[in-house]
Amino acid sequence: MMPRAMRDAFLEKIWQSMERDASLFFVSADFGSPVLDKIRADYPDRFVNVGIAEQNLINVSAGLALEGYTVFAYAIASFITMRCYEQTRVNLALLSEVRPMNVNLIGVGAGYSYAMSGPTHQCYEDITLMRALPNFQLLSPADHITAGQLFTQCVSQSGPKYLRFDAQTLPVLYAEELPDGQAGFHVHRTGRRICLIATGYMVHTALEVAGQLVAAGQSVGVIDLFNLTHCDLDKLEKTLSPYAGLISLEEGFRGRGGLDALLVELTTQRDWGKKLLGLGVEPGYRFELGSRTELHEQVGIGVQSALQRIRDFTRTL
User: Fold this and answer.
1) What's the rounded Cα separation, in Å, for the pair 277 and 285?
2) Same domain, 147 and 197
3) Is residue 180 part of a domain?
4) Which of 4, 50, 56 is nearest to 28 (CA)?
5) CATH number at residue 19
6) Across the chain, which distance is largest between two alpha carbons, in Å?
7) What does the alpha-carbon distance between residue 123 and residue 223 come to, in Å, rounded to a whole number?
8) Rounded CA gap, 232 and 91, in Å?
9) Residue 154 domain-assigned?
10) Which domain holds residue 140?
């Protein structure tokens, strides 16, 4: 199966569904794609481009949702999360507490997707920020198959959601077996000693790291955790029970409330008795340009960086 951009797979689902579902409405902050051209051309009465105005994007989306529309709002990830955070908090997270509404924020450019655009367009904070908002779902796919599958969940489940899509076309992980949407995570590899729990792009890194560790005689599991707020915790606990050590991998700041904090919270609340290692971007902004692979090694989440940290960690188990 040929890989596709996540946004194209997801937008294609929207476009195909708008003909039979008149409740779907699309709002863009002057951000395009070839598939979006088809939505704009075929359904102009349910498409609005608010311009480079993400705060207004949220306001308009909230108003449409209160009128009964299922709304998809679309912009670059760093802008749809941070530029309009107060509007998102008040008009979506807070208002959805008392009024039914379905608004789906599509953020393209998670992590280092825009590697050559520097820290203004890169997005290392979105997991932390969107996890902090009550009533939000945070969905972080690792390939276009998962991204496309999330459309059904967005339409069928009320409430605000944030979808963090990679801007790059990533290899296909689910060509033969679909991810478990109800569980919110998928087991790619089972083991006995340590388990790598990753989200988004870092699932690919986790699989490469695991392959090298297994070749060296380690027993390693790999989990793609793509629902960071509403995964099946009982099933996840059972899945992780054989392991002595858990390692989170995220393309976001380490120790700042992201995936690593989620595992700390679960371990503490459920008394899992697991030893944890959080691998994420070392906090701080960098202005060097380079490939994503190069940048990842510089900030501590590249394959070689991760391997060294994990080998040190396994010696303590």
Assistant:
1) 22
2) no
3) no
4) 50
5) 3.40.50.970
6) 61
7) 22
8) 28
9) yes
10) 6-165
Question: Does 13 lie in the same domain as 105?
Answer: yes
CB atoms within 10 A of CB 77: 27
* Same domain membership, residue 229 and residue 99: no
CATH number at residue 299: 3.40.50.920
Counted domains in the chain: 2
Return the structure tokens found at 202: 């870092």
* H or E segment and range at residue 105: strand 102-108
Whether residue 126 is found in the same domain as residue 191: no
User: In whole angstroms, how far apart are CA 239 and each of 210, 227, 233, 242, 292?
Assistant: 17, 16, 10, 7, 31
* Domain contains 16: yes
Per-residue pLDDT of the chain (317 residues; tens, 9 = 90+): 899 999 999 999 999 999 999 999 999 998 878 889 999 999 999 999 999 999 999 999 999 999 999 999 999 999 999 999 999 999 999 999 999 999 999 999 999 999 989 999 999 999 999 999 999 999 999 999 999 999 999 999 999 999 999 999 999 999 988 999 999 999 999 998 999 999 999 999 999 999 999 999 999 999 999 999 999 999 999 999 999 999 999 999 999 999 999 999 988 888 888 899 999 999 999 998 899 999 999 999 999 999 999 999 999 98
Examine residue 175 and state whether it is found in any structural domain, yes or no. Answer: no
Radius of gyration of the chain (CA): 19
pTM: 0.96
Angle at CA of residue 123, ends 208 and 277, nearest 5°: 45
* Whole-number Å distance between alpha carbons of 156 and 46: 19
